[in-house]
Amino acid sequence: MKNNKFILEEFLDNAFNLKSHLMEFLSIKESDLDGFLANAKMNLADLHPGDALTDVSDFYTEIVGNRHIADLAAWHITSRDYIADTLKLQQRFSRDLVLDFGGGIGTHALANAMSSKVEHVFFVDINDTNRNFVEYRAKKLGVEKKLTFCKTIKDAQISKFDTIVCLDVLEHLADPASQIEIFSEIMDSKSIALFNWYFYKGEENEYPFHIDDVQVVEKFFNTLQSIFLEVFHPILITTRAYKKIK
After folding, report:
1. Which contiguous run of DSSP H or E holds residue 23?
2. Residue ranges in the chain modelled with pLDDT below 70
3. Distance between CA atoms of 214 and 60, rounded to whole angstroms?
4. Beta strands in the chain (DSSP E)
C-alpha cells in the first residue's frame, strides 16, 4: 500500500489518472474531453425536471446517464486543492472497514483503498454507471481487491463500520436527517463519520438537484446535534468529523 504523502501527490498530479479513465470508459477522444467536462454542470442542471420530480433517487438512477460522471469529474479536476484537503482529512480518520456512501467517481474510496490503515472499502452508490466506472478505475489502479461495490448499505452485509465517508451527498437526499440516523445505527463508539453538505440551489438555480427546504434542513441539524458530537480537526474545509454521542 502507498503512504499518505504519495497518495496526495498522485491525486494532485492527475486525480488518480481520472482523465485517461474517462476517455477509456466513455470511449471519448481527448480532443472532445475538455468540452465535455466544461459543459458538465450546465448539462446536468438542464436535465433536472424541477418540481415534476417526485422521487429524488429517480434523477440519479434513471435520468443522469454519464452526465453525472462528467459533472463530478469536472469538479474534482478544477477543485483539486480542495479535494486534496478532504483526502487529508480522511487519511486522518479512516481505518479498517470503511463505508463510502454516494461515492460518485470514487476519488475518496480509491484513496482509502490505497491506505495501509484501511482493511476494506464498501463503495455504495445508487447509480449503476458510477459503480461500473469506479470498479473500472479500481482495476486500473490495482486496488480492486480492497473494494466491494454495492447499490445500498444493506448489500454490504456489514453490521458496523469503523469509518463512514459521506461527502457532497446529503444535500441531494429528500430526508437527510433519516440518512444520518441510519449511519448512527451502523457505527460503534469508536467509529468516525465524515460529512459535508450544501443545502442551497444556487444564485441562478444552478443546483436544482439540491435540497433547500427550511423544514427539511432544520430537521437535519436537530438530528445531527442530537446523535453526534463533532470531533475537532485542524483542516480548514467544510467537511466535519463526528462520533456518536454516548
Report:
1. helix 18-26
2. 1, 40-67
3. 23
4. 96-101, 118-124, 147-150, 161-166, 187-195, 228-231, 240-244
Smallest Cα–Cα separation from 240: which of 189, 178, 193, 191? 193
The pLDDT tens digits for 124-145 are 999 999 999 999 999 999 999 9
- What is the pTM assigned to this prediction? 0.92
Model confidence over 181-200: pLDDT tens digits? 999 999 999 999 999 999 99
Which SS3 state, helix, strand or coil, does residue 121 take? strand
Q: Structural domain boundaries of the chain?
A: 4-244
Take residue 183 and report the three cell numbers written for it: 449511519
Rounded CA separation 46/28 (Å): 22
10 Å CB burial of residue 185 (0-12, 13-18, 19+) is exposed
Element (DSSP H or E) covering residue 8: helix 4-14
Give the three cell numbers for residue 53. 420530480
Pick the CATH number of 4-244 from 1.10.760.10, 3.40.190.10, 3.40.50.1220, 3.40.50.150: 3.40.50.150
